[in-house]
Amino acid sequence: MNFRINARIFAAILCLMLAIAIAVHDFWLHRQEKLENYIPIESTPLPSAEEKVVPDEEKGPKEKTLFIHKGDTLTSVLVTSGIEKSQAHEIAELLRKVFNPKDLRPDHEIYITFIPIPEKQKFYDLQSLYFRPSIDEEIWITRTDNGTFIVEKLPVKLDHVVKEVTGKVHDSFYVDAGKQGVPKRILHEALKAFSYDIDFQRSFHANDEYALVFDLYSDPNTHREEAGDLLYATLTLQGKKISIYRFKTESGDYAYFNEKGESVRKGLLRTPIDGARISSGYGNRRHPVLGYTKQHKGVDFAAPAGTPIMASGDGVIEKAGPWASYGNYIRIRHNSEFSTAYAHLSRFAKGISPGKRVKQAQIIGYVGATGRTTGPHLHYELLRHNVQINPSSIKMLPTGKLIGQELKNFMMHKEEIDQQYKTLYEKRSTLENKAPGQRTSPITAPNS
Ligand SMILES: [Zn+2]
Q1: 267 CA to middle of ligand 1, Å?
Q2: Segment 219-228, tens digit of pLDDT
Q3: How far is the CA of 236 from the centre of ligand 1 (A)?
Q4: Same domain as 79, residue 175
Q5: pTM (predicted TM-score)
Q6: What is the rounded distance in angstroms from the CA atom of residue 345 to the CA atom of residue 356?
Q7: Residues facing residue 377 across a β-bridge
Q8: pLDDT at 214
Q9: Which of residues 429 and 92 earns the better pLDDT score?
């Protein structure tokens, strides 16, 4: 019996010791992690906020890194670290002039220097505060000789490289290019620009290739990198090469154009039916059949049965067939963002079935009165990310084809880019054996 109790006590002590050991180990591990994250401006040891007495021999300002956590405000973080509340408020107010303190994120590390106030052992007097709101900006708050603070926002000089990444599609363009280290921002730009012409779900085959050329900025001190813009991209799908070029138009905006100088963003037809009038707009109305008020999620065009209906834009047929109260129904996906739907058709045009590609203004079907309707009309919907929206709420982009001098300028830009990157694929095949097709060139793209 005694032996059992002793054994239990012994086991309990053992557990306790183990727990203490783990806790101590954890503490040191975290402490070390924090120290690793800390990039000192000048390396002096950091006193903790709880440390009270600072020996007289340690003259001059001390430093500290403040970490922002969820729910923190700049004031609260400063106060926790030993700055007096009134001074913390003053600093936060000053910062507000150049930066909204609400935009502070956990990756914003704030470096401060301070002097302990001898008569108030718990408080520090702030000397300076520094942090980087973004990769290319820094903010300084400094104490002037007369004791007031000033705030400055300064640009950070970044290294700029033009990065080229090429590869073959195995899983998907997004996955494969992502594996090569292409930043998400660049992948999204490429997907958006190509999605007007390419169906990313179906168009790819084995050995299809991609090449992406984009700006990359890096901070020479911290080596942090940030993607700029996609400058040029090509996809070679079953031997057919499609290229897009970033180009600054006369209006000063940048947009992507194909080899012919046509904007990749094709506007949608406002009226997918010739000469028809809108009989019911988008929004609330009394439902003509059901009687109650409900949101009308499309636009109705009154037209005689049999009137041809056109595809609003290039795209892929997603649905074509009878669909509940919509009757005979067609939905076309135009790109990753937009699709359009057409309801109550009397019949479908020849060759219209799910998966088929259609061109803008191609006849896809004919006006009818199938489904829940009082008479022949076209019910037309514009969907953004599969949700109906009011077609008049978005500014449809005109089918941008460059003309005149602007087209000449574009063609010159295109020639330069083509020349500069014509060996992109060949270079990849030599690089592929060593490292995946990545190389950087310190060239600045002409049109940037
Ligand atoms: Zn309708």
Answers
A1: 22
A2: 888 888 889 9
A3: 41
A4: no
A5: 0.51
A6: 18
A7: 302, 368
A8: 95
A9: 92
**67 CA from centroid of ligand 1 (Å):** 55
Q: 299 CA distance to ligand 1 centroid (A)?
A: 6
HEC profile of 335-385:
CCCEEEEEEEECEECCCCCCCCEECCCCEEEECECCCCCCCCEEEEEEEEC
Tell how far the Cα of 281 is from the centroid of ligand 1, in angstroms. Answer: 8
How many angstroms does the Cα of residue 303 sit away from the middle of ligand 1? Answer: 13
19 phi-psi bin (left φ>0, alpha ψ -120 to 50, beta other): alpha
CATH of the domain at 342: 2.70.70.10
pLDDT at 123 over 70: yes
CA of 357 to the centre of ligand 1 (A): 25
Output the pLDDT for position 387.
93
pLDDT tens readout for residues 53-69: 545 545 577 888 988 88
Please indicate, yes or no, whether residues 149 and 251 belong to a single structural domain of this protein.
no
What residue numbers bound the domain in which 404 lies?
158-266+397-448
For residues 88-96, give the mean pLDDT: 93
Domain count, the chain: 3
User: What is the Å distance from ligand 1's center to 173 Cα?
Assistant: 38
Q: What is the pLDDT of residue 270?
A: 72
User: Are residue 262 and residue 296 in the same domain, yes or no?
Assistant: no
Give dist(CA 223, CA 409) in Å, integer: 36
Q: Mark which of 393, 409, 424 sits at the end of a domain.
A: 393
Q: How far is the CA of 297 from the centre of ligand 1 (A)?
A: 7
Token pair belonging to 213: 């050329």
The answer to whether residue 239 sits within a structural domain is yes
235, 303 contact by CB (below 8 A):
no
Distance 378 CA to ligand 1 centre (A): 7
171 within some domain: yes
In angstroms, what is the span from residue 209 Cα to ligand 1's centroid?
43
Q: What confidence tens digit (pLDDT) does each residue in 202-216 have?
A: 678 888 999 999 999
